[in-house]
Design a protein that fits this description.
Blueprint lengths: L1 E5 L9 E5 L5 H21 L7 H18 L1 H7 L6 E6 L4 E8 L2 E5 L8 E5 L1 H8 L5 H6 L3 E5 L1 H12 L2
Parallel strand pairs: 3-6
Antiparallel strand pairs: 1-2, 3-4, 4-5, 6-7
Length: 166
């Protein structure tokens, strides 16, 4: 029996790799292989991020988010609900921090911010990426302590609702 594993653990057209297990090994083995393989591939993909300068990562992330926002103009309108707010995302596994500011329905990513962010979200890169791409449930990662959120609860909830609408 063949299993298909997504590189990012996402149900999409992402690259996948065939993995073969014996017939009758059961669903538990398949789930364990899914989790272990996904974690291994995610860590391998994230490792180079430690060595790329933050300024280049901000440009790449900002360009990606701008591209995503252009796909659905209604998201820009929803972002106006949290206009002027700044979020700090801390990727604990690669020791990187990014600030995201929302102004006039546009998102700006920067490596530094002189003020105090309205909301801080701290977790591993895969969790933060999954959150931003709406591939993981924010409540699940928050209550499992894989995501730590501090700051304005109201702004964090608005942001969560916007992500849920993607």
């Amino acid at each position: 029996m063949a299993l298909r594993l997504s590189m990012w653990g996402i149900k999409s057209n992402a690259p996948s790799f065939p993995l073969f297990v014996k017939e009758g090994d059961g669903e538990l083995l398949q789930q364990e292989l899914n989790v272990e393989t996904t974690e291994l591939l995610t860590k391998a993909a994230i490792m180079p991020l430690k060595y790329i300068p933050k300024s280049l990562q901000c440009i790449g992330l900002g360009s990606f988010l701008a591209f995503e926002l252009e796909k659905d103009p209604s998201i820009r309108e929803r972002l106006k609900e949290i206009d002027g707010k700044t979020f700090l995302f801390e990727a604990t596994d690669i020791d990187k921090r990014f600030y995201m500011t929302i102004k006039d329905g546009k998102v700006t990513i920067r490596p530094h911010y002189a003020g105090t962010p309205d909301v801080t979200m701290r977790g591993e890169t895969a969790v933060l990426a999954g959150l931003m791409l709406n591939r993981i449930d924010p409540d699940t990662v928050f209550f499992s302590r894989k995501l730590q959120i501090t700051g304005s609860t109201e702004v964090a909830l608005w942001f969560k609702n916007i992500l849920a609408s993607l």
